[in-house]
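Hey, I was hoping to borrow your eyes for a little while. No rush at all, and the record is pasted right below:
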Amino acid sequence: MKYFKTILLLLCVAAQAFAQVNVESAIDTPEILIGEQAHVTLNVTLRQGLHAALPDYEQGALLTPGVEVVAQGVVDTTLLDNQMQRLTRQYTLTSFDDTLYLLPAFKAVVDGKEYAAKQLALKVITPDVDLEHPDQFFPLKGLQPNPFMWKEWVRPFWMGFILITLCLLLYYLVIRLGDNKPIVARIRFVKKVLPHKKAINVINKLKAGTINTASDQKAYYTTLVDTLRTYLQERFGFNAMEMTSSEIIERLSQEEDPAKLAELRELFETADLVKFAKHSTGISEKDRDLESVVEFIETTKTEDMPTIEKIEPTLTDNEKRSKKSRRLIITLITLTSISILVGLALICWQLYLLML
């Protein structure tokens, strides 16, 4: 029975300690001037899980006649050891009557039970006023103008100077762009006659003529060989007009049967003799050479060639330099314009900051 009573007593003490609620209040200053503010901090310590309600005042409410509640803070919760917690709230007070106030105790309700903190005192005093020298009372000062300081305007000044320089540069570039007229290069598309058709047309005209004299033979073979060279150049893609007869035969040997080139080789030799050695040929020999050219064209012709030729104009060196200079000027105008816009925005921002 003795041990049982001891254990029961310890349990009662532990339960009481476990359910203990402590309410404390403190003021940051016990004395204020009229119109100043004082702050009261209310702390409620209780076991976790208990529900507590702290005093709640509206703004401007009277805590006691003469003491006004200006504001109140939110409730802060701090967890402590031994399953305890602390609730904290701050109240801001003021007064406009000089006297000593005994503030009512701040109370907290925990699970329906009310707990009160100790009462606090607040003394409100009036500032000392020298009533014996009324001539030393002065009215309120008027608004003072903001003093002008050059150092505050240095950055906008130099930014404005740079902006003006960029504007002058932009004006100069625009003038230069107006003087540098654009070069209009038109690309033409011309219908192109196939090489073999062009050569056959010339040969047909050559057939229609009558060439009997030695002086006409030179013109005859010159026309025939030049027609063949033009066909070779357009058909096979090498510069036959600037090559010798042997070079042409050697070049053709890489693509055509050498046996087919025997008559062409003989034609080139005959043409060289006629043009340079005043060699004379008969009508049958001329017809044979012409037919050999026609036969070569017919055996090597191809229809699979473009019939539209794109002719792009060739620019002179001065036109190329002018075109390059115009592109450079346009690029500089674009960069300068962007720089001016950015600089103007920065200057406006600096002026805005100075006007604040």
About this structure: The mean pLDDT is 81. The longest helix spans residues 317-355. DSSP finds eight helices and 14 strands in the chain.
